[in-house]
Amino acid sequence: MDVKSLIEDLQASLTCSICLGFFTDPVTAKCGHSFCKACLSYCTVRAQETLACPECRADINYGSDLVSNRCLQQLSIITKMLRPHLLQTLVGRSICEKHGEKEKLFCEEDHKILCDSCSLAPEHKNHQVLPLEKVVAKGKEKLLETLNILKKKQEHLQKKQLSVLRTWAKSRKHGLNFKRLLMYEYETMHKFLQDEKILQLQELNQQFRDNLMKFERSKVKLSQEIQNLQQMLLEVEKHLKGTPSEILQDMKGILEKSEKLLVQEPKVVSEAWTTFPITGLREMLMTFYRDITLDPLTAHTHLILSEDLRSVKYTSIPQDLPNNKERFVYSLTVLGAQTFTSGRHYWEVDIGEKTEWEVGICEESIIRNRKHSPFPQDIRILAGCKYQNNFFLWNSEKGCRSSPPIHKVGIFLDYERGHVAFYNAIDRSLLYSFLNKAFQRPMRPYFSPCLPDEESIPGSLIICPRSTQQIPEKEGKFCLELRDSSGILVY
User: Fold this and answer.
1) Is 357:448 a contact under the CB 8 Å cutoff?
2) Is 171 helix (H, G, I), strand (E, B) or coil?
3) Which residues neighbour 133 within 8 Å (Cβ) at sequence distance 6 or greater?
């Protein structure tokens, strides 16, 4: 027996033979047949207390022969609920719970499955109702089309995933290779800089020895000339004490010797130092470059600032400016607008052909109305000056040395280390570096074009903006080529 027949037999077993519906409050007689209690009650009205069984015609006493059957009641309720779903599973279509008919139509507007009776209802009167098989077939076509698209998309994504995995593996390989080569390049650079340092120190030591030897020879020569001069003085003094005839007798020779000594002019010995460019110095410093501007509230009345506050020059005619407490009264000075309390900072000043100047940093609290020079602890500056056709560099630690004229100065400040250094921004060499000394207060950039004299060349101090700082390729710029094991260029 198939499943459908079993379901029909189960329904027949749970159907009242009187009302032909599922049992409602069923009772069972002595003969074993069951009926709805209400249906038997209808029969007893006509047959009084005793009635014949509708199935087997056995006598049934309505008052004593009937037993309520709760199990049969529960089975009827469950079967009544499950039957439409069981039939739907068997035939592939649902059964309308309202009409008990197969649902074989589909309403397009309400998107609902209907039976024939439902399709005739007023709410579906003007709706487009189509056979369910046709709608299902059309839906299957769309689903199959979507399925194919999804499969193609899946294949596309799987190819992408495979490509990403291959690229990841290649990138990982190249990354590790790049790391190895980069470490090697830095080790090579460290070795190169170490070798450069050793060579430059050797050359500096040699220049130091040559200068000492030159001064030693000059000292010996001057000592000999002084000794000769002293002997000549003794001889002249002794000759003056002689008789008139003795004085006149050797006077010509003594005068000739004296004249020779007097015309001899000792050669002034000067120290000779060459510059030592440091490879990659300016490139490193440029990573800390700051755009510095001038603070007009601090400028001395004899100083003229440009409109962009990046240039300052001296004027003999004082300007009519407010007498504020920030302004310098005696010193031809102007401060930068920036204040430093931490970090590393670098800026450059274009000096051009000017031969009198001062640049550096100072404490923000520097006294502005002081007539004499600031205290050394207040400032750390480098100054250039021309004297008797020679150019000298002077620093606030009272150091002074001869130097070729400087045309562009770089200033580097490391606040945490208390470090200040000055560089020749053109040939990338160190000009002067202050010993590290911790800063106690905020610091500001310091500029002074100085009071020009007859020997000096006038001009402006110009702060170079970041946008103009182009590093030439020849100034220590390095190019790193990365190649794999087969020699193919990868970077």
Assistant:
1) yes
2) helix
3) 104
Strands 59-61 and 67-68, sheet pairing? unpaired
Q: Which amino acid is it at 464?
A: C
Q: Enter the DSSP assignment of 169.
A: H
C-alpha 457/C-alpha 471 separation (Å) is 28
CB 472 within 8 A of CB 425: no
Q: Which amino acid is at 424?
A: N
Which residues of 365-414 form beta strands (DSSP E)? Answer: 379-387, 390-395, 400-402, 408-414
Long-range CB pairs of 258-263 (<8 Å, 24+ gap) are 258/232, 261/225, 261/228, 261/229, 261/232
C-beta separation of 461 from 359 below 8 A:
yes
Cα torsion angle, 271, 277, 278, 281, sign:
positive
Query: Could you tell me which residues are beta bridge partners of residue 447?
Result: 334, 359
The whole-angstrom separation of Cα 323 and Cα 302 is: 13
The percent of the chain in helix, strand and coil, each rounded to the nearest 5, is: 40, 20, 40
Alpha carbon distance 333, 461 (integer Å): 11
Q: Which ranges of 241-307 does DSSP label H, i.e. alpha helix? A: 244-263, 281-286
Integer Cα distance of 405 and 391 in angstroms: 6
Amino acid symbol at 296 = P
Q: What is the signed CA dihedral for 163, 164, 165, 167, rounded to 10 degrees?
A: 90
Could you tell me the two tokens for 341? 């309390």
Question: Contact 382/419 with Cβ under 8 angstroms?
Answer: no
Continuous segment of H or E residues that includes residue 292? none
Which pair of tokens denotes residue 42? Answer: 């209808």
Q: In 3-state terms, what secondary structure has residue 488?
A: coil
What secondary structure does DSSP assign to 22-48, as a single string?
B-SSEEE-TTS-EEEHHHHHHHHHHHT
| Cα 9 to chain centroid, rounded | 80
Q: Please, are residues 476 and 280 in contact by the beta-carbon 8 Å criterion?
A: yes
Q: Where do the DSSP E strands lie in 426-481?
A: 429-433, 443-448, 460-463
Rounded to the nearest 10 degrees, how much is the dihedral formed by the CA atoms of 416, 418, 422, 428? -40
Q: Are 337 and 367 in contact (CB under 8 A)?
A: no
**Mean pLDDT in runs of 10 for the chain (491 residues)?**
69 82 86 85 66 84 80 84 63 63 78 78 78 83 90 93 92 87 80 84 84 83 84 80 72 77 70 72 90 95 95 93 91 95 95 93 89 71 83 81 88 93 90 87 94 83 79 39 38 36
